[in-house]
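2024-03-11 09:14:02 DEBUG pipeline.ingest accepted 1 chain
2024-03-11 09:14:02 DEBUG pipeline.ingest length=506
2024-03-11 09:14:03 DEBUG pipeline.predict start
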Amino acid sequence: MASTKSDSSPQLDGFEPDPTLTNDDLKPTTASQRTFSWWEMASLWIGLVVGVPSYYLAGSLVDLGMAWWQGIATVVIANVILLVPLVLTGHPGTKYGISFPVLARSSFGIRGAHIPTLLRAFVGCGWYGIETWIGGEAIFLLLPKVIKQSSLSQSLPWLGTSPLEFACFITFWFAQLTVVWKGIEGIRDLEKYSAPILIILTSSFLLWAYVKAGGFGHMLSISSKLSSSEFWSLFFPSLTANISFWATVALNIPDFTRYAKSQTDQILGQAGLPIFMGAFTFVGLAITCSTQVIFGHVISSPIQLLGQIGGVTTTILAIIGISLATVTTNIAANVVAPANALVNLSPSRFTFRRGAILTALLGIAFQPWRLLQTSESFVYTWLVGYSALLGPIGGIILADYYLIRRAELSIKDLYSLSPYGAYYYSGGYNLAAIAALIMGILPVIPGFLQKVGLISTVPETLAVIYNNAWFFSFFSAGFIYWVLSSFKGKQDTPTTLDSLLPPTAA
């Protein structure tokens, strides 16, 4: 993330890092840059959680047959599980002031780190496109009815959407780029001041639904449409999908915790995630269910619902709320990681801003309007599918940091191309990590190919593995990496701690 300070990092004093491995965006954060308190970390998560995809995810579970309480329980359980890797992966960011691409060098190698960071960037670009499409829908809502009913609103088969909706998508695409230009401080301020506004707008929306529907009795009366066996066959892939929802940020959380004032701040700030997700899931389900009573049919999209409500004041507040929720989620979750990955790929060519622009361009190529066509394609193809890429990366990084290195890193070796460096391995690549990554992904591929329709059937075992892709790939890759590393003998640990940190970050 773009540095806003010019002071040098004490971690690198007296040492010249290799110029191909660093620039101002990749250096460890200094004491003066560590400005995130627990509230600002919590505000980051509020900004991330309050958004249309979170609302849509909650409705998708009920749409697939779950009872309202089963949907909320699934979301909360998934986020309690995810909180563990979030806090564990955030620890080195705060302790050493390093971003995710730099942390990945310790396990994958100085050059091998490009593999996990680019895979994370790939998923981030897809999410960027999805969030931008949602923001474009908010702009579409503002347009006069005469324009929305014109020939420009007719879908083109080759494009997969209408020219008018695509134009709104591109307009919102341009608008977001103005935010990333301010770097980390701009993002911090955006999240900090947006959080209370989003809470107020969400509460107002919930209150409207409660009053109009005469309470939440209809929602509370909705029972499961699934038998016991059908529920459990749906629960585990849904749990995986919900973990996958934030598995992206769980991987690159050091990009944010490197700015935390202390470990206490990063832990307390993240501890509210299951509460925030549970509360917003309730809001999404309550409002969605209330539409059955208010309008006579279920409206699962908040944007379509706001369009149905109508009124100038409602429309203006809707646009502000949806745009703010979309930008706060999109910038933090889907721009930072891809931009930092590109900076790590070529520090001399990429800055955070250039990386953000390329991320935005790739977001268009994902054609997000196709990913959001159905609940099944969103939950079981997109969310579960990419968890097979991110799960093994997280397992390998945590196994390396905690089991192999006992949370001790050599900062100087993370910025060195010396063949004698602790993270140079074989030509800059840790073959054990790459092998574990491949072995963690391979068993999931057949189930994915079946889900997208490229093959007709797979053995039941492979289908189960796919439905639990994050769990399987996370633990299997981490275990394989630990075994392969043990064969090589105990990894060298730094004999000195490089005198790295401000005392509060240790």
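2024-03-11 09:14:41 DEBUG pipeline.report The mean pLDDT is 83.
2024-03-11 09:14:41 DEBUG pipeline.predict end
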